[in-house]
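Q: Could you fold this chain for me?
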Amino acid sequence: MTSPSTAASEIKETVKRFILSSINIDQLDDDDDLFDSGIVNSLFAVQLMTFIEKTFAIQVRMDDLDIENFKSLNATAAFVIRKNT
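A: Sure. Below is the predicted structure, expressed as structure tokens.
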């Protein structure tokens, strides 16, 4: 069984690889604000939601579309873990 910290690390790594392969930036830390920093714009946010839904087999509902759920790798990992429990 995967521990919560291992699961969070794996989720963050998966999302980080997706973002780094899609956007031309050199580094992305777990707490970097993806929206305030300009890393993620509204169009890419839709792509990110689709990636998260498909990759982690979850459904992102309208009431989940809170920037706090996706503003950083840490926030996204916590959201995915909440949706899977």
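A (continued): Helices lie at 4-22, 42-56, 67-70, 73-83.
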